[in-house]
Structure formats: structure tokens, C-alpha cells
Amino acid sequence: xxxxxxxxxxxxxxxxxxxxxxxxxxxxxxxxxxxxxxxxxxxxxxxxxxxxxxxxxxxxxxxxxxxxxxxxxxxxxxxxxxxxxxxxxxxxxxxxxxxxxxxxxxxxxxxxxxxxxxxxxxxxxxxxxxxxxxxxxxxxxxxxxxxxxxxxxxxxxxxxxxxxxxxxxxxxxxxxxxxxxxxxxxxxxxxxxxxxxxxxxxxxxxxxxxxxxxxxxxxxxxxxxxxxxxxxxxxxxxxxxxxxxxxxxxxxxxxxxxxxxxxxxxxxxxxxxxxxxxxxxxxxxxxxxxxxxxxxxxxxxxxxxxxxxxxxxxxxxxxxxxxxxxxxxxxxxxxxxxxxx
Length: 341
Ligand SMILES: [Zn+2]
What we know:
Helix content is about 40%, strand content about 15%. The protein has about 350 residues and is an alpha/beta fold.
């Protein structure tokens, strides 16, 4: 059955006018009750989650159980004023959740090395002793903690980070990215890359992916500011690149933007909200069903966490074929991160 789009122009409260696309069935104008039920009950893997400074492992476990989220993949634990290093905070969560939580390395150790050296030298210097010791540390952490993954890396967050330091465009094939990619091959871990879709970033990422097809990149927020046809073209060229769909749903961008105006930059780039998903993205996911995963990313209150999960279960998964919904909800992540039941 063919779906059509009903486009609702919403007057944005920040002066923009995002289009909210609602997928509807031409025959019945509703998604089947079976699709809704499946989307409500499928297990989920959240492949992009920041354990915030004000969260406790117990609160996260409660949320995961409530929403039937089987695994959470760390993307970098926020230290705040806790006095505990980011990786240590993630290990704290893992102590409670065991196999269900993948701690992440590099969130603050890379950033600290970067600010020690200055001018992005940790990334771009042809040779750099600080980079060597950083890579050694990451390698040791990934070896000691076989479940560990890489934290989100910001190759291009020129206009899409609230962290001033990350608002820049780095060469995606700079020496540090090349070395991290090699470490990813060694430990069989994808690199989670936050990269706005600037042509130069895209070209350099293509080189990185082609350098070794055994490596993989998981595009955080599916390229952040992308259109579906841009990802389609890139997927056709590169079999070893995947997308997480975190922070591309309207409830989160709307709710969070009320407390942090910098977050309004994501308006208009959302893919789905509770009422439905943009048809061009649904089509892309159906055409590449093994490449997409879901994520929550960072939330500042548990109410927003609930909203984001609800939008995944009501606005995205019901609009996919049953077998695609299961892949996007958890099977692709189980495969990519080699998750153990
Ligand atoms: Zn993130």
C-alpha cells in the first residue's frame, strides 16, 4: 500500500516554519493496528546516549525497564561537577547494568589532550607525542573493557553544538581520525561521528571509509543537517557507513530548545515526531534497512527521555515494514556492536 504525505506548515516560535510531514496510508489514512502494536512492543537498543551529570545508574535502569530498552550504547558521559572522569562514570553505570550498558572511551580524554595542545594540533599535526599517548590510553581502555565503544567524535559541529569548543570543522581524514579509525578496525568498533554535511567533510570521510572497508562509521544524527538524498548518495558509495537517528525528532528539539536557545538550530531538520515521519526518510530506511539505528542522545530531564522514546515508537517505527522496524529498533545494533543477549 502506498503512503502519501500530508504536509502541515507550522509557524515556528523562533521565526522558522518547519514542515511537519505526517505519513498516512492512502487506503485507510491510518497505520495498521498491528504495526502500532509491534512498534510499541519491540525491544530497543539506544545507540547514542550521554549519561548526564545529574543522572544515577538506578534512574537509567528504571527508564530502560519501563521502555523495554534492552541495551544502551554510551556516547560520552557528562562529568559536570561530579569530579569523576567521563569513562569512570560510564563504568559506574556498567557496574549496575552489566552487559546492557556499553561504556565509552575518549569523551573527555580527547578533549583534554586537544585543549592542552591547542589549535586542533592533536588532530592535524603530522606527528604529535600527546596524540600518541592518548591513542595508547584509548587502546588500553578498549582492551581492558572489551564491551567499551568510542564516544561521539565531533568532526564538524560548526553550527550544531552547544559546546563552544566543538563548533568547528576539522578535516575528517586528519591523522587523529585516521588513527582512531584504525583502532576501530582493531577492536571491531564503529566510530560515532558527528559531522555536518559540508562537501569537504563528506569528501574526506569518503577517503577514510575507503581506506579500509573493515572499519565502520556510525553517523551521529545521520549527518545532523542532512537531506535524505544526500545520505542516499553516500550510502551507495560506501557500504561501511551507518546512521543513528538520534536528535532528529521534534519533541526533543522543541522541549530542549526552550531551555537552551542554541538548540533551535535543529528546527526544520527533524525526520519524525509523534504524528509521523518524513516520507523521503522512510523510503531511504526501507531502501537501506540494515543501516539505521535509534538513539536518545542527551536529555536534560527524564520527561524528555520519555518523549523521545515515545516519538520513536509512535512516529517512526509504525511507518516501517515489520521486518525493517525490527532491524532499526534493535537488530542492526545487535549486529554492529556484537551485543550479547
Ligand atoms: Zn550526542
